[in-house]
Amino acid sequence: MAKKYQYELTYVISGVVQQNQVDDIVRKVNHLIESNDGDVLEVDEWGNQRLAYEIDRKRSGYYVNMYFQAPGELVQRLEGELEINDDVLRYLTLRMDAKMQRHYEKRKKRQAQEEAAEDEADESNAGE
Fold this sequence. Notes:
Blueprint: E1 4-14, H1 19-34, E2 39-55, E3 58-71, H2 72-84, E4 88-95, H3 98-127
């Protein structure tokens, strides 16, 4: 079994694509990772954003940021799939080093604490 590394992938889907097509692209990327011995840790859809500059005559794009764990060979295949998809304008894959992993873990811990605080506030408001 190949060693798994953690990665962060951000990709931009054309802003003129319908929402159901966006969902299909996100689903296909997730499926490609999971079907090749990888694990999707988190998917964060940032939604439609204005691009800093035009890409293929497009002024907006749908941003998706995700974290996953997979063998190194999968990244090349994943980037190949993103490259041939005409609806994906840009992508960037980063292998997470120790500093990035610490930052990711701190962020996850902070989110869990914020959610717990919100749950406590909701419970105390419901009891009044």
